[in-house]
Write a structure and sequence with these properties.
This protein is of the alpha/beta class and 364 residues long. It is built from eight helices and 18 strands. The N terminus is likely disordered. InterPro entries: RibonucZ/Hydroxyglut_hydro, UPF0173_UPF0282_UlaG_hydrolase.
Length: 364
């Protein structure tokens, strides 16, 4: 499914019964004025970690987190980066986005460091920059058969790709991160929806210039439109740390596949972080029926959205308030955050304050 970017000027964070914020701290946890202080006061505040104040992703040479802190960064659309114990994981590679789509604050040539590249599926708004990023990082590219075939078409050497089935038996270990792929079902939309959304852009904004249209078309061409992506070609990924801390990332959501249901059973009673899309349906009532069921399955301690920002001419910017309100009311054990592009989301993975988090880089 194709969507993308927007820099937000506000951050909303919530816990079931607590919202704490300061000028540099916007997080759910214990607010002691100088940053997030854990229940175990011997632990340094997350705000003291340079990686938790820098807006430079680790894949671009930014600082790596210290100790057992994990850092997630949203890089637009469904792109995320995970840094933990010296390992850098890139999720999706859609950085050079279509003209007039919000800028991410970096360019593709800056992405030079990674241990592994994960591609959820082969639509252009998930895979378009995979060849350049793979060449610059030398990292393996993991995905479904459709995904790795498309990666090779785009220029990734076959020897640098790893094809997975997503049957919950495959495991890949990079340092202290074990990665498991799961076959999931891609979203579907009503006939005519994309035409109506394109018409809305045409009605409410000036047309693209010839140069902008040329760039838009070039980006859109770097990906596959194989219809089998919907039922066969999409993967979710689970990250497991040595202490059992778990993160689940999907870059598309429909109804759960049998493999996803099995994964949720395997991970019960829940995970530490769940990252799921809030798209493609612009009507919140419709999208809730898809996104929320995955939250119910995995019951994350922290939810982070993806794929909710706009792609010029194709998708709108989907406001998160309806989803956050439902989480607050129906899943009180789940906190949530709306990150900004490149802002570090620093999470404790051990100790009495496990799952406390801090969103840094504010005003720096």
């Amino acid at each position: 499914m194709n969507t993308a970017g927007r820099s937000r000027t506000s951050l909303r964070l919530c816990a079931a019964a607590l919202l704490a914020s300061t000028a540099l701290l916007t997080a759910c946890g214990h607010d002691h004025g100088g940053g997030m202080t854990p229940a175990n006061a011997a632990d340094a505040p997350l705000s003291s970690d340079p990686a938790c104040q820098s807006l430079t992703p680790a894949s671009q040479g930014g600082p790596l987190p210290q100790g057992d802190t994990a850092v997630l960064r949203w890089l637009g659309t469904a792109n995320y980066e995970l840094a933990y114990h010296g390992v850098i994981v890139i999720m999706d590679t859609y950085y050079d986005r279509p003209a007039r789509t919000a800028a991410l604050g970096f360019t593709v040539p800056q992405v030079t460091k990674a241990n592994v590249i994960l591609i959820g599926h082969a639509h252009s708004d998930h895979i378009s920059d995979v060849a350049a990023v793979a060449a610059q990082t030398k990292a393996p590219v993991i995905g479904s058969a459709i995904t790795t075939q498309e990666a090779q078409v785009l220029g990734v050497p076959a020897a640098q790709t790893i094809t997975v089935k997503g049957d919950n038996t495959e495991k890949f270990t990079y340092g202290d991160i074990t990665i498991s792929p799961t076959h999931i079902i891609h979203s579907t939309i009503e006939a005519g929806l994309t035409t109506q959304l394109a018409a809305l852009y045409a009605l409410d904004a000036p047309p693209l210039t010839p140069a902008e249209q040329q760039q838009h078309d070039a980006v859109s061409a770097r990906g596959s439109n194989d219809p089998n992506i919907i039922t066969q070609g999409t993967m979710g990924f689970t990250f497991t740390f040595p202490n059992g801390f778990r993160i689940v990332w999907f870059d598309s959501v429909s109804n759960p596949s049998p493999e996803e249901n099995q994964l949720a059973t395997n991970l019960a009673p829940g995970v530490d972080v769940g990252i799921f899309p809030w798209t493609p349906h612009p009507i919140a009532e419709t999208q809730l029926t898809y996104t929320f069921q995955h939250l119910q399955l995995f019951k994350p301690k922290l939810f982070l959205p993806d794929h909710h920002d706009s792609i010029w001419g194709a998708w709108l910017d989907n406001g998160l308030s309806p989803l956050f309100t439902k989480i607050r009311d129906d899943l009180p054990g789940t906190r949530f955050a709306e990150p900004l592009y490149r802002s570090p989301i620093c999470i404790r993975t051990t100790g009495n304050s496990r799952d406390d988090f801090y969103l840094g880089g504010m005003g720096t």
